[in-house]
Amino acid sequence: MLSFFNQTKILVCDHQLKYHMTDSELELNWFIGITDIMFIDNFISKYSTRLAKRYLTFEQSSKIPQPYPGNNNSYLLYIHIPFCEQLCPYCSFFRIEYEPSLASKYFDALENEIKRYKNLGYNFDAVYIGGGTPTIMPNKLARIIECIRNNWNIKQLSVETNPNHLKPDIIKILKDAGTNRLSIGVQTFNNEILESIQRLEIYGTGEEIKKKISSVVGIFDTINIDMIFNFPKQNERMLSEDIDFINNIRADQITYYPLIASESKRMELTEKCGNIDYKNEKRLYKYLARQLADNYKQESIWCFSKKKGLIDEYIVDHNEYIGIGAGAMGYIRGTLYFNTFSIEQYIGMANKNIPTVTATRKFSHIERVRFHFLLNLLAGNLNFPDMKQKFGTLFKFALARELLFFTANGAITFKNNSIKLTPRGQYYWVILMRSLFSVVGDYRQTQMSLNTLTNENIYDS
């Protein structure tokens, strides 16, 4: 997706590097001789952020039709539940404080939108329910899952939750609903950090969280623990203690994200937790990968599993997906879209059978190739025959500059008719995805702020 080479002109002379940018389309003339690793890290971060902002410029309208499916395709269905008992300062996902009456209406509206996609002819074989906190109303969630299973043959069902919801009654509901993968948002077991990110009081101490998770290991096919590294003031000792907790719990899977602080959230996070040090990020990433290697196999740039083939959070088998719910994002047939960020508007539109999509971005052929290249290398491997089937024989020309850049900098290798990330490349992809998600977070925050200011409710039922 990210063509750094259209954005900068780099001139190298005797290893003295100077660069400049213009407003016109620019290209990389010469980058042989770039050896400063720190410069490359910063280069990737800054220019991927700039390009993500350009790529994620959406057409806004309240009358955008919902996308139609392609022929003979099965998609992943993402459902967004935005309600949280408490809003964490680092999180830039679309979420609001839990209000029971509004949440109940929201779950009912989700059923209507699910049925709409059935009528449009979609076929789903995998479901991911995220938030927010999907288990905020477990009985309502069970109804949503039942509605989905009544309409499609679902092979994989993943649900997010928080440690305080690991209660026998909620676990039974999720198990009876056929949940394959339960993903538990922990972030850290360190009490000092938990307090700084305002999770200690509601979710408990690290030791209390450990006991809760240990009690559900083995109930589902996969128990995943969501963790974050590079919190302000986090060091290797703290990270090592977190990994000790993980090894004692013996969860099936660990997803270790970098701290993704969008520009809109950075000031709040700094005030409450301290300054973010991105120089610390690479060191901590390498450290956690080494420490987890004894018990887990690295399946993607940030997912570590005890055995191969476990469901991962991010899309590898499903390159296209539909997003249902307020603020949900989807990608299908080369178009990225967002649903309305107004809860009230979403409920009204869904109940009146009106398309809930309010923003779209249609990618060109080259942009689609680059987007596929970026997301599929999350798993560390990109298959050439698959690329050829999706984009034609000339896909390599669309990626020529990217392939040259990352090859020259030791990020990728070519083996068995595929591209593979090197250890250095894995960290570069962490930077790329952090930058992309940060820009997406800023877009979400902008839309949430607009909804707060206008209090738009033109479809209220």
How would you characterize this protein structure?
The chain is an alpha/beta fold and 461 residues long. It has 2 domains: 4-57 and 367-430, Arc Repressor Mutant, subunit A; 75-305, TIM Barrel (Alpha-Beta Barrel), CATH 3.20.20.70. The protein is 42% helix and 20% strand. The protein has 16 helices and 20 strands. It has helices at residues 37-55, 100-119, 138-151, 168-176, 191-196, 200-203, 206-214, 236-249, 263-273, 278-292, 343-351, 365-376, 384-391, 395-398, 400-408, 423-454, and strands at 9-13, 16-20, 59-60, 75-81, 83-84, 96-97, 124-131, 156-161, 181-187, 222-229, 253-258, 297-298, 303-305, 321-324, 329-332, 335-339, 357-362, 381-383, 412-415, 418-421. It has a 9-stranded mixed β-sheet with strand order 12-13-11-10-9-8-7-4-14. The relative contact order is 0.14.
